[in-house]
Amino acid sequence: MAHKLKTVRNKWLGLAIGALIVVALMASSVVYGLTSITWSTALNAFTQFDGSNEHIIIIDNRVPRALIGAAVGASLAVAGALMQAITRNPLASPSILGVNAGASFAIVVAVTFFSVTSLAAFSWLAFLGAAVASLIVYVLGTLGREGLTPMKLTLAGAAIAAMFSSLTQGMLVLNEKALEDVLFWLAGSIEGRSLDMLGAVIPYIAIGLVGAVFISKKINTLVMGEDVAKGLGQRTLFVKAGAALLIVLLAGGSVAVAGPIALVGIVVPHLARFFTGSDYRWIIPYSAILGAILLLSADIAARYVIMPLEAPVGVLTAVIGTPFFVYIARREFNQL
Known about the structure:
The chain is 78% helix and 0% strand. It is mainly alpha-helical. It has a single domain (63-288, 320-334), classed as Orthogonal Bundle (ABC transporter involved in vitamin B12 uptake, BtuC).
């Protein structure tokens, strides 16, 4: 597929414009919502804080929400791009391959049976659940004479996601207290999250994003094919293992702070390729920018869909992403 930005200069310009859009959306996230806030009031909250209701909402709710939206959107998108690269599966994403469901399951188990409430513990549990789910899906996808194939990986991921989701729902039905504690989180939302929640996972998310940029050149070699990569001297197992670790950091960190938000990781990498082509040195940063744009836009829209109530942003991303997922799936199956 021909991409839109042909030259390096245009790609850098696209990144700069995308970054400006992210900043504009973060500012809009601070201003727009159920509580009417003017731009001057938002500015005064930082320069002349007076303890008013509007200023408290801005500092304690809207600013953390904007920062979390940008971080989670970027993380899920980059995790999806890495998954699609190392599996050579255009349908791969943290939600489709069960990574989000595994992270959710681990947290619900901890809340249900061990009454865990620590944000730091949530982070580690999300990473553990994401890693276990990834390992199970990979093992199932490699079974059989043909080895790992995109179709088998997708089916294994869907099965594991369904299993973990069913187990999670079953535990919540049996434990109403746990349901109350984690329902807001399981919906996939960034509303009501605090900077402390982001602070608990931002080191891991930062490592994942920076690591993805550094590994992008090796990913370019890997996607040429296993035999070609090995022929060029690449130790493909180490590259895949490194990418898998970054995926766990990004997806686990995102789920820990925002819950399982669906389909960002599958939609955004395809949009990045539309602009940049197949070079992962550009796909990774474009995925981060576009992921932040998508999640921030969806979160702002979610405030108005059923006002005065708010829809979880995960619902909006599912509505946006499902038709795109069906399109990609139909295109890939028609090519078989």
